[in-house]
Amino acid sequence: MARLRSFLEWMGELGGFTVRLVRATFSPPHHLRELLEQMHEVGTRSLPLVVLASAATGVVLSLQMRDSLLRFGAKSLLPVVIVMTIIKESGPIITALVVCGRVGAGIGAQLGSMKVTEQIDAIEASAVDSFKLLVVTRVAACVLMLPLLTIVADFSGIMVGWLANNLIENVALIPFLTDGFKQVTFGDLLPATLRTAIFGFIIGLIGCFQGMRTTGGTEGVARSATSAVVLSSLFVIVADVWLVRLIQIVFRS
Amino acid sequence: MTPATDPTGGGDPAIQITDLCKAFGSRTILDGVTLQISPGETLVVLGRSGTGKSVLLRLLIGLQTHDSGSIQVLGQELTGLVGAPLYELRRQVGFVFQNSALYDSMTVVDNVAFPLKYQNRMSAVERRERAMALLTQVGMEASAEQMPADLSGGMKKRVGLARALALEPAIMLYDEPTAGLDPITSAEINELILKLKQDRAMSSIVVTHEIHSAQAIADRVALLNQGRIIFDGSFEALKHSEDPFVARFVQTG
Asked: What pTM was computed for the model?
């Protein structure tokens, strides 16, 4: 009972936080410089990890799918299966989960330790809106950078998928891509990629929310960092279920 | 020594606190506090640890909200003040945190320049010059490029003081400025507070449990006990008070 109550309280607070965030995002002043710094942190710095994770997925996908498709004598479908799987699902979700781990934990820990050492109070005492300076910029950076990271992840996954396939049988890149993208439309690519902006929103929101409500010293900071990762990954996966279904309904062809 | 400020003169009070109440859950922190600070006056609020002295200071710049009563800062009612007007008011008030609350990701000089960065349309060079001038005032110009983690407690206090002065406030609030410092460093900080008061004609509230600090810097002393002001007058009067708690506080302090 007590747990249910504290969960409902948490949800309520999160709702209030979200409303405040949306309001603050669309009212001046805007901290563009801080936003650029955060975009660098969320985007550029996550790039190697995202590329690597996505490349690994590309290899595995290529090997597994080849095996399965061979069984049904549908080996010629391999390029299109790889391309479709990566741009529709594995690219977006792998990117989001990697960013959950890297950026979610970072935001939770950073804001958490600023909170417990009164640095956030110090910002407020300097007559600067700490919410706009810290929260709005971080969430906006996540929203803006996730789709871009996803495009890079898609690229890396498909290229390495081709490479893995090429090591087994000699297929040139251009025929592979032509085959792979023959059936692909913008209706496949755009909604799938842009939905990661919502993943970005979730990651930024949960990280900032957990960070800003940190109490209880070092232990509290650790709790915030952990819960930021756990909750944002969970929310991203649940949101993915809804979004995939929604996209299918809206963009049904 | 400083010329004694006439507490009755100087027009409207810098801060007028009336019947202020604050509770955390069922725990009452402040229970009807009424205090007045005249322009240019230094009021020292004494009290045992955990009696809500720090909370009182935080209420004065709206870092926390009070339950009832009224706070007027420079003639403006703080109750219910949010957004831009609240930040406008905070620009007039400098706050020195107990643990200094320096931004640990910035150098000392950037810490001091931080409040200027978001207020005035000032070039980076000007900001740096201003920050260096402030650091010189508190005797910390040699440490400008160091990180806060490399400083001693007393040095951090000085930097915190310089940062609080950056916006040229009319009122300074000091939260335990000498807590945790050795007697010599404490005396130096007290001298600094006195010097600033002389140079800048600011009104100040100093919250402390150290009676020696009170003696050194106070124009007037108030004693807070169990959420109420049980003494308000000169340091001399405090020493000769017949109230048993006041007498005990003075003797043991």
From this structure: 0.89
